[in-house]
Amino acid sequence: MRRPFLHSFLSACVIAAAGASQARAGDGLVNVADHRVAKDGKTLCTGPLQGLIDECAERGGGTVYFPPGTYLCGTLVLKSNVTLHLEAGATLLGSRNLDDYPPHVPALRSYTDLYTEKSVIYAEKAENIAIVGRGAIDGQGKWFPGRHAYKSRPYLIRLVECRNVRVRDVTLQHPAMWTLHLLACEDVVVDGARINSLPAVNDTNDGIDVDSSRRVRIANCDISTEDDAIAIKSTTPRRCEHVTVTNCTLRSDRNGFKLGTESVGGFRDITLSNCTIRDARGTGISLLAVDGGTCERIAINNVTIHNVRFSAIFLRLGNRGRSYWVARPGDKPSDAPPPPGVGAMRDVVISNVLATGSTTTGVFMTGLPGHPIENVTLSNVQVATAGGGTAKDARRLDVPEMEKDYPNSHKFGPLPAYGVYARHVTNLRLDNVELAFGKDDARAPVVFQDVRDLDLSGLRAETGPAADCAIRLRQVEGALIRACRPRNPIPRALDCSADCVGVKVSGNAFDEP
After folding, report:
1. Whole-angstrom Cα distance, residue 236 to residue 215?
2. Model's pTM, two decimal places?
3. What is the pLDDT of residue 27?
4. Superfamily of structural domain 22-324+340-506
């Protein structure tokens, strides 16, 4: 027998609990249990659940509340002013049947048109939407085909051109492809989410993809993924800007924090702070601009990086030149825009970083001839690599440009420095950088090649017994080297080639050249 008072009290409590997380506190609450929606994880309930979302939206907004249980569904389309509240013990379970995911092709064109048209939860041009609670959304990714079968793998959540979005406290797990894709969204908060695609159940399982979006805050999240944990992208001509990532734990089989794999629209005002990155089988932090666009005003502060397979930090200005345009039926060849040219990367500050266990080079940054990375500062950075570089590696100053290649740091092969290798950079400042290795390394701690306006201050670097110098300069114009010292005796601290000009040394623990 229904108890009206108890039912009203429960509804009020749920609304109060969800209110802080709702994008807009609607007047209504729809309790899934009141509508006898199956919660056995076997009965497909897409239709009834979509009906409740639509009902909530038609009433002007509110909350669809999921009590404990497992709700099997295909695509659910989230509407404006609606919150999905998943109580602890509640799971939205994505169907294993691809037919349960009808295609949704957004009006906005982006390179991700190539990847997907299906998802478990989808919203387009919706406002004031939220997914909250201590429940879970599970994509059952292992039941879908692998890496290159893009459109046969649903995303877990895809939000396109949405405004005022909240994702709080939920667990997002086992996606068939990307987990949370924010495409051209504005005013987004992702707080306290737990994202998990490990052990790997499929390929390219990114955690959070912030794509051509503005005013996004990601905080207090625990992310463990097969692919990039957090990826900042620009797969449209719209700039991705005002993105803050803080207080997160990131683990990835690829890259921990990656910006710019697609960079058409560019990036501005991106920050990463107070985070830990560990066990990345790619790179800890990657900042890239390879498809045009300008990457500028990037700040990284208070980050620990441990046990990454390649470089701890990788900055790359390239020229792959991939367009955002993916042809659709009815398009003419003349509709496609020209491919983008070389973009720009500038105004990057990386401070208070402790990185241990990278296996190639601690910090690797490279622009292109005639297109340098500009205005980079590394301060209070400690890097300990695995070491083991050979004398042959140390002499390798013909590292290929690879301007058209996919921007992975390991593709360049062994680098001539174990600590910092910088090439094609203008206005580079290193202040209080400390470098060390595990196994003896014959490479110099730092190598600068085609660098203008270098300020190197307070370097402390370990050198191996086979190393011939601590600091190597090639084609450097305008450098001030001061207060630096090797941590081990070395016959020659500074190796400065004849094509360097304007190099000044002062107050170092080694003799001037």
Report:
1. 17
2. 0.93
3. 55
4. Single-stranded right-handed beta-helix, Pectin lyase-like (2.160.20.10)
